[in-house]
Amino acid sequence: MWLQAPWLSALALLLPCSFGTPNQDRIFKYRSYRETHSFFEQLQEKYPNLVELWYAQDIFPEILPRKITWGTCEGEPCKTLIVRIANKRLLTNSTPEVFFSGALHGDERLGPATVTELASFLCEEYGVDTQVRRLVDFRATWIMPMTNAFGYAAHRREENSMDPNRDFPYLHTRPERCMQTQTARAVNELFRRHLFQFMITFHGGMRALTYEWGSRNHMTMPQRRSTEPPDETAFREVGQAIQAAAGKTLHRRWFYPLGRINDLVYPVEGGMEDWSYAAGWEKSPTPITVCKPNTYGGYAEERTKYRRDSISTLVYLAEMDNYKTAPDNSLGHRLEIWSPSATNGHIARNLRMCLKTIEMTRPEVVVLPPSMPSSAGDGATSLSVQIYGFGCHQMTARLVAVPSSVVPGCLVGEDGGDLEQEQFQQILQKSVKMDATEGHCRGLSLWNASTPPPRVLQGAVPTGEEVCVLIAAEFDQQWARQTRPDPLVTPRSHAARGRLEERYQVKANDGPMMIKARRTKLFAVGGPIRLEATSATTMTAKDTVDQPALAISEETTMATSDPHTSLGSSIWQQARLVPTTTFVNLHPRPEEPEDVTYAQDFFSIAAISFALSIAVGCAMLLRNRQEVAIKANVKDAQTRSELAEMVGKDPI
């Protein structure tokens, strides 16, 4: 009897400070090669349905044909770790994919720390935050924490005296001088099997967030400025969103200046950035080189010949700090992720950039539970649906009703991209437009409390006919804008073409992965319904199927105490569309006893006081950490001696 609500409240206050809850604060830190491997092995053991690990030398035998020990990492043979974070039960061969490279240069060590914490965050918050669950359920995040495994273990820029970021098949005049490293080959094989829509590659030595172009064949002379990439609008808009996620400095400037690689950094030949953007559509053998290396037993030249449009990633080069390895006290701590400020450490800023990038990998409409409050007259009923755009900048959405005979079970797949062309055309032809809206997408709100309210679509659903209510939407049509693209082609990236083209389909070079997308994307509001008018204000609804898995509303992605908003119920079962029905709580709370004693009240007051004391202690601890973080901003506290020691002029 004594363990009542006040005690539970006290326990809830205590848990974040004393136990390993997902949102518990901790100081970020660097990890060694072995510690990083161990960390991911433990993460996989703890979250087996979300984490998958591979070693490139095991799954890509073509990169090391002689099976030799190509390098020693902390006393053992080097292995290139590959990580995927995704809900295995929902993965398909068309799940949108995003890629993060931790350390292409082994002595630039903020990247591995960032992507390691990213993987931890996605897993730990998956069961807590509905938006994080959406990122993991409907997208696949691929990570190479230590892309250059040898360099990272040895604290060296290169792999066996070879620079991996000069080793990709782009603009090489000597075919034997590219694809020499295990690092580049591992990345190449991963990209041959997957269709990454976005990517961030982390570096160090200066501070900038940059995009294409980054090579001499795409520069104006004599100004030596970058020409415009065909995807300039998409690059710039997504880049601005990523830049905003990282936040500003104490001087109210963006923490990461944004621009093209040639303009803010410098051009290179053989860079991963130009290759990962253009290998699928620029000409071969120039600038896309067919490589013939001899190192490590060689590498078949066929591995650098690519299917048309297969490698077309919107890639960002993030130069994170003027130091190759930023000071430990500049990394920050975990709670900063939710609280952007000028004093944030590096990892919280970078992690927010990663989360925003993952979000943009799949544009979608999030449908909240619908309601049908009243009769609209003429044998119809007024339906109201709240929605918001996610993974996009701009959205145009229409609420439509379609005969269920055209869409059996109202099943449209992820977004209608898998539907046969004939069925898709029938849906468009037979749909009845009920309402429409357009404007900005809402997107992630983990660290932004001022998110706009959802948009409301409403319209009349005819009675007496079984129909499917769908959202038909287009996203980011402004990405088609160009001024002087170089070369003179339409946007080439997977992300842009999947939004802009009437129908976009492409397959990976190897394996089953593909993209099947349309400009107009479809999202089911619920299952088939039949509304029958029994009087002026009384209707009945028929619920024939559960809500498709990929249209689970934000409110239902976490279990609650209300049986009508749990994961076990479909959205249509929750709304029910029956205005005359009164829901009954199937799990009523037990009646409170009438003989509560004063001793129990005293015990409860003592528990609350104790909990408040602990909470105040935690708040003081966080304040102290924030004060330390203020001193941790390297850029804003540099002395002349520190500037003299910087290695920012080293190649990226």
TrEMBL record:
<feature type="signal peptide">
    <location>
        <begin position="1"/>
        <end position="20"/>
    </location>
</feature>
<keyword id="KW-0862">Zinc</keyword>
<comment type="similarity">
    <text>Belongs to the peptidase M14 family.</text>
</comment>
<dbReference type="Pfam" id="PF00246">
    <property type="entry name" value="Peptidase_M14"/>
</dbReference>
<protein>
    <recommendedName>
        <fullName>Peptidase M14 domain-containing protein</fullName>
    </recommendedName>
</protein>
<dbReference type="InterPro" id="IPR057246">
    <property type="entry name" value="CARBOXYPEPT_ZN_1"/>
</dbReference>
<keyword id="KW-0732">Signal</keyword>
<dbReference type="InterPro" id="IPR000834">
    <property type="entry name" value="Peptidase_M14"/>
</dbReference>
<keyword id="KW-0479">Metal-binding</keyword>
<feature type="domain" description="Peptidase M14">
    <location>
        <begin position="29"/>
        <end position="321"/>
    </location>
</feature>
